[in-house]
Amino acid sequence: MKKLLTILIAALMVIPASAQQTERNIIYKVSVGNINYTPKKEKETVGKVLGSLGMAALTKEVTVKTEQPNYVDDARAAIVKGFGNVNRFKVIDGAFVEGDIAEGETAYYIDGNITNVFTESKTEIPTDPKQKSYEMFKAHISATINLKDAATDAIVISYTFTAKDYDCSWINSTEGAINNALEKLSKYITKKLNVQYPLFANIIERGDNTTSNKEKEVYIDLGTDLGLYKGMTFGVYTVKTIGSKKAYKEIGRLKVHEIMGEDVTLCKVSKGGKDIKNAIDSGVELAVKSL
What we know:
The structure is a single chain. By secondary structure, the protein is α+β, with helices and mostly antiparallel strands. The chain has 4 helices and 13 strands. The N terminus is likely disordered.
């Protein structure tokens, strides 16, 4: 019979105090407040102009910047989508109404400013004189977003998220370039907040492929209930108590292989199989956290 493993779950990084609660993986309600468009105006200096002219002379390429205010609503939608995909957030598009928040429940709202929505275009001239020249586009979208405590209005975290032109490929249409940047913006937000509010898991059982010196797979007690997906990664850490403090050392990585239910998932050990097995066999205190 496989040995049942109980692993202490603890916060493995500096996260907001409101997220450090006794109940693991709390789902926080997040409402969407005002996200305004306040375009950032860049000053044209002599150095900038000369630099642009010099670059154009070297590359034979001239780019034209165009503000795209018509896509502000799309940028807002991408921000909402990004927060909505955070594992531990339940997003409400709009203000909380009476009854949405229980007494004593921690909830948040977001507000902020979209500061850039523009495209750059360049004209491509084919080497074949029989072919026509054509335009290519890149987009730049950025926003500063605040996550605030719904009870006190205090800022919990504030980030500037940016999908810059150099992150995106040249696209043959304005809409394509904007959509490319919007997708990146949404993913940046989700990734950042998933790190800030990670998922914690217990290893509940060994897998079938354990060898004499290496752990190859384990089961954890998360699944569809918290949106796990194949390929998702977790870190495995040893925990050492020093005085009243906890010290964490990463010894391996897990990768989700098969989601088997609401709270059961099979993970492959992608790194540190020997160290993980030694720690389990020795009864070392471990912690597991999504990356």
